[in-house]
Amino acid sequence: MKISPRTSIVISSIISCILIFIIVYVYTNGKPGVIIEVLGRAYIPLIVLAISIRALTPIVHGLSWFLANYICKVKISVRDVIEITLASLFAEYLIPIGGATEVAKATFLSLKTGVGLDLAATTIALHRLSTSLAMFTVTFVSILSLLAIGALHWTLSVVALISLGMVLLNAILFLIIRYKKFRTFLQRLSIKLRLISSTSYTELPSLSLREFLLMFSLSLIERFSVIIAALLVSKALGLELPFPLIVIIFDSIRVIVWLLPLITPGCIGIIDLLQVSILKTLNISESYMAVLVLAVTSITLISNLPIMSYAALRVYGASLDKIVNLIRSAKGKKL
After folding, report:
1. Which one is predicted more confidently, 260 or 156?
2. Going by C-beta distance under 8 Å and a sequence separation of 6 or more, which residues neighbour residue 278?
3. How far from each other are the two terminal CA atoms of the chain, in whole angstroms?
4. 165-219 tens-digit pLDDT
5. Domain boundaries defined on the chain
6. Given CA atoms 127, 129, 132, 135 in this order, what sign does their dihedral have?
7. How far is CA 262 from CA 12, 13, 17, 57, 316, in A?
8. Which residue of 76, 83, 168, 292 is surrounded by the most CB atoms within 10 Å?
9. How far apart are CA 296 and CA 147, in angstroms?
């Protein structure tokens, strides 16, 4: 049975609401009023600063992808890359299925520049490799820090192992996409989707270590924008958590879930429940951790959704069906 785009969004949004309800009701011991109480004591200047910093995250994400395009010799302006990035990230909230962001980026990059999906996918695979490597780096350093002070829990070690697995997976993906037969298949798909008119196989440029390190540096800056924003929110609420723990809970877990298939719009509810569950194993007050997790999620939505939705309107207009059907065709799946 074919499910309309709007129906799929409604269903996934209901799932998000159920998960958030579990966090609000269960983890506050049936006293959700404690959330209002803690938020009422929040130091607003730090909240505003957190929103400002978090708003930069998707822009830095776009800049690092621009370098991936530059490395792969795709001619496109910084502004266009950032607009496509923001619009594609917004697709997560429109299309709760795995790979929505990447498919949207590849599709719109191909439409904008005329390159085939093979080259577009190469830039995305390279960008994913940089993102996952940056995430693993900060996670690994955080794990070592927690180990040094004797505060390492086995659940955090699992997160570190998964982050390493994501790096290896994206490295393999990057190598597969560079394979000639696979690139030929993607070019034929580009013609079928009317993204390009003819195939023309070109050798991919060699990967420059200097350029990759520059992209990796931007990926690290992106990670720290997320981490610092979460740190500011925790301090604004008067909650003191070790910095390495904030790194793992509010960045590493978010990236891991983001790189995996989605179930709810923007992974709302899924990430939150996972974060709260891991914090619970660390013997942190359930009420406080529920407030902190929900506050960080709220800051993310407030800072990102306005600029993402504006970019989405510029890139693919106000038609929801248009973008959903386009990405559905590219994935060859039904929502």
Report:
1. 156
2. 155, 156, 159, 249, 253
3. 10
4. 888 888 887 777 766 666 666 666 656 655 554 445 455 667 778 889 999 999 9
5. 34-331
6. negative
7. 10, 12, 15, 20, 22
8. 292
9. 26
